[in-house]
């Protein structure tokens, strides 16, 4: 059965591939209109480059192999974001703001969920060189605009800030293993497990850590958090950043979730995740990850987001697509050949039948070229 693919990998057949490509072009054009430049990093890199800094969380998700030329270990990228950080820090070397975007396949050793592919088509945008909340807001607006452009409504955009948990863990003196345990319980919103794990933590940090899973909902959660959490400088700064972001985007469906700490070791500031109606998981996510380029020679402020275009294509409206035009074999008919070439030049898909071919089994043809006297005209193909 050599036609079978490994688990959680699948071909994109013509209809799906066409939808993915249309969405790819739409979103990349949206990025370009906002000044984001397109980059195409390689599929393979030296492993340490892929897992340096912001990429450490990707270790278990990265396929590894030995380079036959150098003998060094290579990794098949599981995320393009670290590659974009390398390009900004080491290759472009801009002093001001850099805006980059990308779209290509990545490969995961394990699927992110039971319905996810191990080969997502990752499309995203990254902004380097600006540490202000305005950069985070610009990236979130860019994401919301991308969904609006493909007519996929976003029901909510959850905001969080990893600085809140970091400040609590540091003030409580949590050892590394305890911090990891509490972090996983917070992400799962496992309140009973959290109570047990925090039993030995000093007050008021014990109560604050246990309170985080309840601090989600509307933007009023920011004021609740300010009243209920310890008055630590890190927490005050994080809440102030969230407050400024919310005030700057009243048109967006923003909400707060202070226990959503996905990518905790990857991000170091505001994090966000977009959700669509009827779909339980985040359809896009991102956040701030300052300093990702340090290992490549330059630590830069950084924020961005990405999404899986395969999943987006499943959820976005299909839209109406124009069918192809069926043309008879031109042979030596120069008039017909010129007409077919002109139609293709206008952006039409024209399927020219080969000798002996009576029907097209490829793209859906809804029109055909027929001879009327000395002219070739287009007629609609009637459904049987």
Q: What are the salient characteristics of this protein?
A:
BirA Bifunctional Protein, domain 2; 12 helices; alpha+beta; nine-stranded mixed beta sheet; 21% strand; single chain; four-stranded mixed beta sheet; 384 residues; 16 strands; 3 domains
Layout of strands and helices, then pairs:
Blueprint: H1 14-33, E1 37-38, E2 44-46, H2 47-50, E3 63-66, E4 73-76, H3 81-92, E5 98-105, E6 121-128, H4 133-149, E7 156-161, H5 162-172, H6 176-187, H7 191-197, H8 205-211, E8 216-217, H9 221-228, H10 233-248, E9 254-257, E10 270-275, E11 284-288, E12 302-308, H11 309-315, E13 324-327, H12 334-345, E14 350-352, E15 365-372, E16 375-380
Parallel strand pairs: 1-5, 7-9, 13-14, 13-15
Antiparallel strand pairs: 2-4, 3-4, 5-6, 6-12, 7-10, 8-9, 10-11, 11-12, 15-16
